[in-house]
Amino acid sequence: MSETIITFIGGGNMARSLIGGLIADGHPPAGLRIAEPDAERRERLVADFGVQAFGENATAARGADAVILAVKPHVLAEVVRDLSGQIREQHSLTISIAAGVRSSDIEEWLGGGLPVVRSMPNTPALVQTGATALYANAAVTAAQRELAETTLRAVGVVVWLSDEQQMDAVTALSGSGPAYFFLTMEAMQAAAEQLGLAEETARLLTLETALGAARMALESSEDPATLRRRVTSPGGTTAAAIEQLEQGGLVSLYGRALTAAARRAAEIGDELGEQ
Known about the structure:
By secondary structure, the chain is α/β, with parallel strands linked by helices. It has helices at 13-24, 39-49, 57-61, 73-90, 103-110, 142-153, 167-175, 177-194, 199-219, 224-230, 237-247, 250-273; strands spanning 6-9, 32-35, 52-54, 66-69, 93-96, 116-120, 130-136, 156-160. The radius of gyration is 21 Å and the shape is elongated.
């Protein structure tokens, strides 16, 4: 990727995280461009990363191998239509990180027949521990798939989907998922404080427990159910807690929660596609 030119349309937090990850992976800053209308934000991006920053989308996208759409979903249609002629002339790969917008709609706004990769990253990408799903339309070449994967892999793990409809489930799981864990941590800390622990002690023990459990699950060859059973001794303290969680319907509650999120993701896709 050393000679590849990647342009980001939008210089927000996700763009910053991807730029930082790419540079850490060895991509030269000179090969990274950003279109950002806010002058102060442009100055910070140049100062922090040494990249090229422009006020106009078309100037930043000129000659780019990949154009990454990192703007809010509700303005994406306008942005894509404005760049469609230039992207068509260059035959650039278009990568969208805008939540909810389907690749078929982006391709239509571009004029049809152009390579589009839709991605669903999540907020832990901001600390290079993200989980991103990718979907490529039929016009994406093998080299472009590799470019998209390498770019998003700079901020975490990447998986490919063969069916774009699965993106709604991904949105419900990993896209929205960090909030579920934050809520769980919030509840555990509050319960620990009610049991008498100081706020900072409860917070630190909660966060380190969450981190340790995730790391164990990632590094183990066993699935989470097996790991849970191993630390749940019959008649012990963990068993008493798990019994309460199961009686409260935790498993079915998560099922309903993810179903609701996936349903809403599909609705948002329909709404955005009508722009």
